[in-house]
């Protein structure tokens, strides 16, 4: 019945900054971008493998209550083939990345970083 994740929605405080981060730094292709005048809101759909990120802007959105243990979605993880190359790419673009760790249950390597609004993101190395 439920087959896959279609999209993850993210509301950005600074839409152009976040669009640059997801499209240019992380390299997710833009599928479409629209301005919804009645909501004073931009919406940009970005391709992430078989899924999408829907990036929104809204006037004066409230901040996230706390990080990372707030109730709700904890973080978004991106699968990568080479974690060192992904970390080097992020750091070359000025993105701070935590040290690489090993998941004791899967023996896969992972690390965390944040988007421009401090949303927690993870790199998880493909096994």
Automatic annotation (TrEMBL):
Residues 4-126 form the VOC domain. InterPro entries: Fosfomycin_Res_Enzymes, Glyas_Bleomycin-R_OHBP_Dase, Glyas_Fos-R_dOase_dom, VOC_core. One of its GO terms (molecular function) is metal ion binding. The keyword Metal-binding applies. Keywords: Metal-binding. Pfam families: Glyoxalase (PF00903). It comes from the Bacteria. The keyword Metal-binding applies. This is VOC family protein. It comes from Aureimonas endophytica. The lineage of its organism: Bacteria, Pseudomonadati, Pseudomonadota, Alphaproteobacteria, Hyphomicrobiales.
């Amino acid at each position: 019945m439920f087959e896959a994740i279609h999209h993850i929605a993210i509301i950005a405080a600074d839409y152009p900054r976040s669009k640059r981060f997801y499209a240019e730094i992380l390299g997710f292709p833009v599928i479409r971008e629209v301005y919804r005048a009645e909501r004073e809101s931009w919406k940009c759909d970005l391709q992430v493998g078989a899924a999408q990120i829907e990036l929104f802007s809204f006037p004066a959105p409230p901040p996230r209550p706390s990080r990372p243990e707030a109730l709700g979605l904890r973080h978004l993880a991106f699968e990568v083939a080479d974690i060192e190359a992904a970390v080097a790419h992020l750091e070359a673009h000025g993105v701070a990345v935590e040290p690489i760790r090993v998941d004791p249950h899967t023996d896969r390597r992972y690390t965390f970083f944040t988007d421009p609004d401090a949303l927690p993101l993870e790199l998880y190395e493909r096994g």
